[in-house]
Amino acid sequence: RKMTKRETGISNLQRIGIGLVLSIVAMGAAALVEVKRKRVANDVEMHSSMGGHPLPITFLWIAIQYALLGSADLFTLAGTLEFFFTEAPSSMRSLATSLSWASLAVGYYLSSVIVAVVNGASRRGPDHKGWLS
User: Fold this and answer.
1) Is the confidence at residue 50, as pLDDT, over 60?
2) 19-46: pLDDT as tens digits
């Protein structure tokens, strides 16, 4: 607040931008964790045919990406809601906010559809569940 001389600290669009950058960083962290997980699986010669044996890797590796994604959602969603509340005319605030939530819901729904399509396309026979399941 001292640096920006704004009551809210940073602007709403800056807050949204920080959230989007954190989302990109989180996806990069997820990719690095997946590389690490696959390397550990190859080192101990574990394959998907071995059943439900856990990998010798701590779950804290994924905590990094979840912390980044949580922070990204915090910045993005809070910035979006505050942006619509402060910038929209008073008669349009509830509509703008509800459209924001509706677009988020559509995005979550589409991600579920993509997962289902990828699983269906990568299924090899009745015993194989698919790439993502």
Assistant:
1) no
2) 999 999 999 999 998 888 888 877 776 6
pTM value is 0.72
C-alpha 1/C-alpha 8 separation (Å) is 7
Query: Residue 24 — φ and ψ, nearest 5°?
Result: -65, -45
Average pLDDT over residues 89-101: 88
Contact between 16 and 76 under an 8 Å Cβ cutoff? The reply is yes
